[in-house]
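Appendix B, Record 12. Input sequence as logged:
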Amino acid sequence: MKKSILALATIALCLLCTHSPAQEKGKWIKLFDGKTLKGWHGFNKGAAPVKNWTVIDGALVCLGAAPDAAGGDLVSDGQYENFILEWDWKVDKGSNSGVMYHVVEDKKYHSPYQTGPEYQIIDDVTFPEKLEEWQKAGADYAMHPANANKKLAQVGQWNSSKIVFNHGHVEHWLNGKKIVEFTAWDKDWNNKKAKGKWKDYPDYGLARTGFLALQDHGNKAYYKNIRIKAL
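Logged structural output:
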């Protein structure tokens, strides 16, 4: 009898481990508690302290000072496949950052962008260099620029963004408007990858599941109200 009870308890524990709340479909999960870095770690650094990110007035803030040459990108503890990701963000004058998904952690990669597609976060207006359309805020970086629906808040003001990834169908939203829509891995996607910036990054965008990442591009960037719903 005791052995049967122990076996049932073991099975129940395994089910709890394999079906964590972060993976429940249709349920919103907060990824940032507004107070700590709990649920996040440095890219390829495991549980090592993250020195270039902090919490200020309820926002997750990149200080723009990576602790080493490998960069200071922040990565979620959980991995996601199909999802809706929502967050609010703002940047300082001239700042550059980004939100990536399906990121693969491995020592052969020095940065999340080598594998993870990026929702670009940047100051379009006063960035010190001329930007291509695919480099501007809201774009699927180096692949799909934002459309005419894009309305970006002024520097220093909060924007609301959303990524929908559903079995290869991808949408980028900015301040309530859909500004990017494409299909991952189709002929057009493969052509863009083969001819553009990612032609020298063979693993870019191929993972079907992976981590989320917030980019440290050497500038200050602010994030809050980060939540995700698995599809």
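Residues 2-18 form the longest helix (17 residues).
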